[in-house]
Amino acid sequence: MISGSLVALATPMDSRGGLDWQALERLVDFHLEQGTDGIVAVGTTGESATLDMAEHKEAIRRVVDQVAGRIPVIAGTGANSTREAVELTEAARSVGADACLLVTPYYNKPTQEGLYQHFRFIADAVAVPQILYNVPGRTACDMLPETVERLADISNIIGIKEATGDLQRARELIDRVADRMAVYSGDDPTAVELILMGGKGNVSVTANVAPKAMHELCKAALEGNADLARQMNESLMPLHKAMFIESNPIPVKWALHEMGMMADSLRLPLTSLSPRCHETVRAALRECGIL
To answer: Which fold has domain 4-227?
Structure first.
């Protein structure tokens, strides 16, 4: 089972908005060296919404090839078009991704039955382990626990990233489906508590800049060392908060630029971190021992 700190990897871009493959290599090496337990390539933090199909597939392929089986690679392959999601998921399977992460369809607002049929269709179409991804704050689409429970009976749907930050929801999911699928946090501040309830890990934005610390935090929580895990989480709280001072991945890409890992470049409609936020993020990086 995939578990631990799973970094929601930022996608490096050059000053013109093109993908920076050399910076991507450096970033993957950084995570391999620092103990990250798994890499989520081209998810929300990876700006999947503004990569074209060819770029999306190529980024996944390069990460899979570079990691070379040393840790799991989970490919972000969700879309609000079921056919597009199938195409991306098949492409990820064909290059050797260990699993795929599929966000709930955004903007078109399907019913719960539509969500069930969407994810069932993709699971039937592509023989690869699949992880559901529920983040209603970004998608305007909330997949309810009873729908997740129905999907848990499909053999290659192996988990869900629950990114509401609602621990009551997390408890209900774990009670309903933990015997059949893994439940992962998608919310850094509350991830420790979700893991201590029985979750299997955290798909983390903070891990982009503090991979070793997030690995150790998740390890402590998975081992049931609640006091240590909570203490570590409290020390990282300034960073958790700073990474969402503006829309993700704006702050994390600026932080990685400050660390010398990549250019501070995003694709429109996202823009660089507002100058008024610079010192807040910089102070969090200092407080957590990164700068």
So the answer is: TIM Barrel (3.20.20)
Q: Is 184 a catalytic residue?
A: no
Would you list the domain boundaries of the chain?
4-227
CA distances from 40 to 7, 84, 149, 193 (A): 6, 19, 24, 21
**CA end-to-end span of the chain, whole Å?**
34
Q: Out of 57, 116, 161, 184, pick the active-site residue.
A: 161
- Work out the number of other CB atoms within 10 angstroms of the CB of residue 51: 19
Residues with Cβ within 8 Å of 182's Cβ and at least 6 positions away in sequence, in order, are: 1, 2, 3, 131, 158, 159, 160, 199, 200, 201
- Mean of pLDDT over the chain: 97
Catalytic residue among 106, 109, 116, 133: 133
Asked if 161 is an active-site residue, the reply is yes
Residues counted in the chain? 291
Q: Which residues are annotated as a binding site for pyruvate?
A: 45, 203
pLDDT in tens, 146-182: 999 999 999 999 999 999 999 999 999 999 999 999 9
Does this model's pTM top 0.90? My answer is yes
